[in-house]
Amino acid sequence: MSEVLQADGELIDKHTIRFQRLLPGPIERVWAYLTEPEKRATWFAGGELEPRVGGKNDLYFRHANLAQPDEIAPEKYRNAVEGSTSETRITQYQPPRLLAWSWEWGGKPTEVVFELESVGDDVQLTLTHRRLPTRDNLVSVSGGWHLHLLMLESRLRGTKPPRFWDTQAKLEKVYDKLIP
Fold first, then answer.
1. Which CATH architecture fits 10-178?
2. Exposed end of the chain (fewer CB within 10 Å): N or C?
């Protein structure tokens, strides 16, 4: 992976970031990486997902599984190294095309939406995170989603993932400059 990282998230408004990725399909495979705990844990967070609107989606973060052994997590993310859980609620569930959940950030409800569309043998993934309450939340979330989507893409393509914490630090700087 190139040492120069560029923001590929699109700032929709001062509370919303959107990412798009063209991933290797089929769509059911990408859907499985969004909804099956074991697969989701390889790029983002594990945890059980109740497959229905109103269902719980427990996100279990254990970033020690995503980072290289010699990487040290920044202080503000240390709780996610060995394990932390965040409970979300499914707000939209239309397999294999649409998954959304509400997720509290800074004491405020936000919404994460994954949309999948088949494009030949590939899948267009659009991830939108709305209603982030502060600029700091937006910067942190933008860098985080960018990194996690890099991890997802590497899993789906069978390539070596980026160094987790090193890449996170670089991406936060990139989004800090991008977001007014």
1. 2-Layer Sandwich (3.30)
2. C
